[in-house]
Amino acid sequence: MARIIVVTSGKGGVGKTTTSAAIAMGLAKKGHKTAVIDFDVGLRNLDLIMGCERRVVYDFVNVINGEASLNQALIRDKNCNLLYILPASQTRDKDALSQEGVGKILDELKKEFKYIVCDSPAGIEKGAHLAMYFADDAFIVTNPEVSSVRDSDRMLGILSSKSRRAEQNEEPIREYLLLSRYSPDRVKLGEMLSVDDVQEILSLHLLGVIPESKSVLNASNSGTPVILDEKSDAGQAYADIVARYLGEDRPHRFIDEKKGLFGKLFGGK
Amino acid sequence: MSTDSQQNDHHSPVLEFKSSTFSVPVLVLVSNDAITIEQQLQGKIHLAPEFFKNSPLVFDLQELNKHDLDIDVTELINIIRKLGLLPIGIRGGAAQQNQQALELGIPVHSGHSTAVSSGTQKQQTPEPEAATPEPQVVAETATLITHPVRSGQRIYASGDLIILAQVSAGAEIMAEGNIHVYGSLRGRALAGVQGNTEARIFCSDLQAELISIAGNYKISEDLNGAVLNQPVQIYLQNHTLVIKDI
To answer: Which CATH code of 3.30.70.260, 3.20.20.70, 3.40.50.2000, 2.60.40.10 fits the domain covering B26-109?
Structure first.
């Protein structure tokens, strides 16, 4: 049975698109046919992070409007042939999406794909609402600072009351916490909320901590999801997250300051 | 499938009867003035429209019959239905009232008040207090919330409100009765919102943005350090909020 995963946060700039690209790639690399959809109509970014911006012909809005078929719009990833990208339109705005249209496309995708990752735009308006509405699982991306945490909390409230599962009284969306841009040194200095602080405020299952890392920026600039950079700490953190999501039991890393073997092996930030 | 089930008819039952107890609001009437009943009932519903929307209801005529006040059951049922409630039973009615209800598909509940049903003439004159019409909705149940109340969410309970998880900053919980939070209370909590000064707030970890009982409130800044992050109860004494350890 296909599962729809929404990557959401409320706040902007916390790493939703980076996370969407990484986990979609991670799931595909594990052998699951995966589609990743950019819901950020008007501010499309996912295609850049996935390195397929020069292959975009048709987009999400074209498919909704019936101007192109789903197969025409889906772009196969150059690194993994089980991964497909449905890019957003850059020339339209979020009003071009309709609940009915999104539902139809997701239904169609569910027939072919095991996982459908929805990269939500920031905010709690229409785009973000449609990205989460049909979800089965939600990855809440949060930075360790108060405004991000509060926005995540707001988003969790919306997931539990405004989603399709909530409206139809089905089993609620499974919610997972991803703490990104985490820096143990700064937590120690009291400049950043700790994992425990964030978990206490959100009381949510922690799927993984992604350390603040130069490799994320490098990966974005080069258009390869950071999870493919197996030597980087962020890449490994995302690999752990995908494995945990799929049911593997892996200990959490990157929560404490880097010391010893890891520090030596993988260098500084 | 149909052939299967036909064959199995005698072996695997497709239904069974179970006994369940439900908590249903009971409308106790003390006046037979249909217009006043409608007005006051409308007023009550207006206080908590979500709670009453399509709510099942049993109406109780015991008090009326005690004082020999007759009421047109058909008219009463029409009023209740018109206001969006679903009458599911009559209690304490006289024989002819029960008959009327039955004809409209409303079951008769025996309950504690069958004694009056035989039309005995106990008193010739109604007691003075019965003249003041005051329909009441009794048997309000507590609302139980088991999941965290997130920022931006609002919960309103027409009775007591019990929350078994945290209430996040930016969330708002309101109850006409008491509020219990068995988790961190970080949002706003308003008890006795309809003016019940006896209402209290109980929480196992006070970090609230605002607490209020019957309109008397304190904001986070007014809370002193001794009560913050503590399990406390909050109640009203001489129009002042008192915060005490539990």
So the answer is: 3.30.70.260
Give the span between the Cα atoms of A260 and A267, in whole angstroms. Answer: 11
CA distance A216 to A235: 8
A224 known member of a binding site: no
Query: Could you report the per-residue pLDDT of B81-128, keeping only the tens digit for each?
Result: 888 888 888 888 888 888 888 888 888 887 554 344 344 444 444 444
Would the annotation count A17 as a binding residue? yes
- pLDDT tens digit sequence for B192-241: 999 999 999 999 999 999 999 999 999 999 998 899 999 999 999 999 99
> Is A84 within 8 Å of A113 (Cβ atoms)?
yes
DSSP state of A227: G
Rounded Cα gap, residues B160 and B143, in angstroms? 6
> Is it the case that residue A199 has pLDDT exceeding 50?
yes
If one looks up domain B136-245 in CATH, what number appears? 2.160.20.70
The CA distance from A156 to the nearest CA of chain B, in Å, is 7
Among B150, B185, B207, which would you mutate to test the A interface (most chain A Cβ atoms within 10 Å of its Cβ)? B150
Chain A residues close to B183, C-beta within 8 Å: 203
Q: Give residue A264's identity as a one-letter amino acid code.
A: K
- A172 vs B contacts (CB less than 8 Å): 147
Residues linked to residue B218 through DSSP beta bridges, in sequence order? B211
Distance (Å, whole) CA A52 – CA A37 = 13
Which fold would CATH assign to domain A3-246?
Rossmann fold (3.40.50)
On chain B, the residues whose CB falls within 8 A of the CB of A200 are: 184
Ligand-binding annotation for A16, yes or no, is yes
**H-assigned helices in chain A:** 16-29, 46-49, 60-64, 70-73, 99-112, 126-133, 146-162, 164-167, 184-188, 195-202, 214-222, 233-245, 260-266
Q: Does the ipTM surpass 0.85?
A: no
Asked if residue A128 lies in contact with residue A141, where contact means CB atoms within 8 angstroms, the answer is no
